[in-house]
Specification:
With 123 residues, the protein is mainly beta. The chain contains no helices and 11 strands.
Length: 123
């Protein structure tokens, strides 16, 4: 089992950058693809990005392609989401989870959620 703990959120102006971290407990971390999701107020939680177990294959929702980069370090049990050129519509609580990747722009969660980290982008 993977238990994630997210951090790195904050308040940033449009066009700025943030780097989110997900520290996941569990000796099987390197066996799982990992992903980021987000939930804006009044909206459903949506997939953002995913990376396979060895970091070689990634997937992104179309709205973040070219702006966000997901990466991982299995030695540190950590996944990162580098977010550049942030927009107000990126404002949401961001969550990390182990995932099953379904293609180049979708993944579904297969582990429990962490507490999330708030990202707020001002215009």
């Amino acid at each position: 089992q993977v238990q994630p703990v997210e951090s790195g959120g904050g308040l940033v102006q449009a066009g700025g950058s943030l780097r989110l971290s997900c520290a996941a407990s569990g000796r099987t971390f390197s066996s799982y693809a990992m992903g980021w999701f987000r939930q804006a107020p009044g909206k459903e939680r949506e997939f953002v990005a995913a990376v396979d177990w060895n970091g070689r294959t990634t997937a992104y929702v179309d709205s973040v392609k070219g702006r966000f980069i997901i990466s991982r370090d299995n030695a540190k049990n950590t996944v990162w989401l580098q977010m550049d050129s942030l927009k107000p519509e990126d404002t949401a609580v961001y969550y990390c989870a182990a995932v099953s990747m379904l293609g180049f722009n979708k993944a579904i969660p297969i582990s429990s959620w962490g507490q999330g980290t708030q990202v707020t982008v001002s215009s």
